[in-house]
Amino acid sequence: MEKISIQSTYGERFQYCWGCGPKNEEGLHLKSYPSEDRESCIATVVPDDMYTGGVPHNLFGGMIATLFDCHGTASAAWFAHREKGLELRSDTVIGRFITAHLEVDFKKPVPMGEEIKLTARAEEIGERKVIVAMEMEAAEEIRAAAKMVAVAVKDTM
After folding, report:
1. 139 — alpha (psi -120 to 50), left (phi > 0) or beta?
2. Nearest 10 degrees: CA dihedral of 63, 65, 67, 72?
3. Domains of the chain
4. 84 in Cβ contact with 57 (< 8 Å)
5. pLDDT in tens, 25-61
6. How many of the other CB atoms lie within 10 Å of CB of 13?
7. How far apart are CA 30 and CA 111, in angstroms?
8. Has this prediction a pTM greater than 0.70?
9. Lower CB count within 10 Å: N or C terminus of the chain?
10. Share in percent of the chain as helix, strand, coil (round to 5)
11. CA gyration radius, the chain
């Protein structure tokens, strides 16, 4: 079965996000995928050295929030899609979600040069909003956690 990133199924006009847009040439190109059990979404990234923070060799907080932002909205789109009984296929044009609220708890420094794993789970799925809980893990330790309220937008936004 082909592994399809959620971001690759965004409608044409929504594919230019700096953090996760597949068509933003200078962006990060974060890719989020539904887990095998369809209960969570996973993204992994090894941040470039340019994103170090005030503490050398650790990821700066703004990038941590950016990763949560992009992964969270993609995950919300997947959870809403799944809730409708739909599958993620190469011809899918998934509904787009944006961040209404994001809170981040910074627990431990996030080291540079190591893979970071983001995991998202839906806490609540409504008609127009999804509440997403997320964790960021590096070196087998939870480094940050976040909670997001994501809302669906119309394709004409």
Report:
1. left
2. -170
3. 6-152 (3.10.129.10)
4. no
5. 888 889 999 999 999 999 999 999 999 988 889 999 9
6. 11
7. 18
8. yes
9. N
10. 20, 35, 45
11. 15
